[in-house]
């Protein structure tokens, strides 16, 4: 995929656990930060640590706005391709749990 040039700062990914069964990563997003385009190889769960507003950039130029509520988790299937951007006015964090037993 040809990603357009960006001037956004990167979000910080801190891998907390990575074993045969799962990978747990904490993501910290300063205002305006992004993950960069990526595709998930496994089914995953996101657990928001703090409130925030995300802009999801999707293939084909589509976008979606998502509000994070601390402690309210959601799941996504393997193969999801996107870029996550902090589009709000405050930093936020979430923990992402990738389930290696559910490949895409």
From TrEMBL:
<dbReference type="InterPro" id="IPR011051">
    <property type="entry name" value="RmlC_Cupin_sf"/>
</dbReference>
<dbReference type="Pfam" id="PF07883">
    <property type="entry name" value="Cupin_2"/>
</dbReference>
<dbReference type="InterPro" id="IPR014710">
    <property type="entry name" value="RmlC-like_jellyroll"/>
</dbReference>
<feature type="domain" description="Cupin type-2">
    <location>
        <begin position="26"/>
        <end position="97"/>
    </location>
</feature>
<dbReference type="InterPro" id="IPR013096">
    <property type="entry name" value="Cupin_2"/>
</dbReference>
<protein>
    <submittedName>
        <fullName>Cupin</fullName>
    </submittedName>
</protein>
């Amino acid at each position: 995929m040809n990603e357009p040039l960006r001037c956004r700062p990167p979000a910080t990914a801190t891998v907390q656990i990575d074993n045969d069964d799962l990978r747990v990563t904490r993501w910290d997003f300063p205002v305006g930060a992004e993950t960069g385009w990526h595709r998930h190889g496994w089914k995953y769960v996101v657990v928001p640590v703090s409130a925030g507003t995300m802009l999801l950039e999707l293939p084909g130029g589509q976008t979606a706005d998502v509000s994070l509520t601390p402690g309210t988790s959601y799941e996504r299937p393997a193969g999801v391709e996107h870029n996550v951007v902090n589009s709000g006015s405050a930093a936020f964090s979430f923990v992402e749990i990738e389930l290696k037993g559910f490949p895409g």
